[in-house]
Design brief:
Order of helices and strands: HEEEEEEH
Number of strands: 6
Number of domains: 1
Radius of gyration: 30 Å
GO molecular function: structural constituent of chitin-based larval cuticle
Largest sheet: 6 strands, antiparallel
Oligomer: single chain
Helix content: 10-25%
Structural class: alpha+beta
Keywords: Cuticle, Signal
Mean pLDDT: 79
InterPro entries: CHIT_BIND_RR_consensus, Cuticle_Struct_Prot, Insect_cuticle
Strand order of the largest sheet: 1-2-3-4-5-6
Number of helices: 2
Low-confidence stretches: none
Shape: flat
């Protein structure tokens, strides 16, 4: 009798939990387009979902003009969605020989460089290169090491 009551109690708990927390519904794909990859290395795709996720990207092979075989894949795209708090999030990007470059209002930005530091950087950039290829010239030269020398 106790085991029957226990089974009924557990079954009721599962039924109540299923009503309070239904399984995740499937989100429909409203739009999907794809073109490529093409023989020239170009491609394009985009999609839109029922929960307001949008994404698209296009790419191509770019010749850097430095000779045969100096090509890179370049991509440009964007996506958007709503955060759990309901805030719209949008990000656009380029990926090329300069790396991945995202842009979006939600991304953190570094503080501006203080003017004195910027002047120092500009000054260092204006110096002629040294033998090692660096613009920074060392003022301090350590004394040569001599065995048995005490410091």
């Amino acid at each position: 009798m106790i085991s029957i009551a226990l089974v009924l109690l557990i079954g009721t708990a599962f039924a109540v939990n299923a009503q309070q927390h239904p399984p995740n519904p499937q989100i429909p794909i409203i739009r999907y387009e794809s073109d490529g990859p093409n023989p020239d290395g170009s491609y394009k795709w985009l999609y839109e979902t029922g929960n307001e996720i949008n994404a698209e990207e296009s790419g191509l092979v770019k010749n850097l003009g430095r000779g045969e075989g100096e090509e890179i894949q370049v991509a440009e795209g964007r996506f958007s969605y709503k955060s759990p708090e309901g805030t719209p999030i949008a990000l656009s990007y380029i990926a090329d020989e300069n790396g991945f470059q995202p842009r979006g209002d939600h991304l953190p930005t570094p503080p501006p460089i203080p003017p004195a530091i910027q002047r120092a950087i500009d000054y260092l950039k204006s110096l002629p290169p040294t033998a090692q290829g660096s613009n920074i010239q060392t003022q301090y030269q350590p004394a040569p090491f001599k065995p048995g020398r005490r410091f």
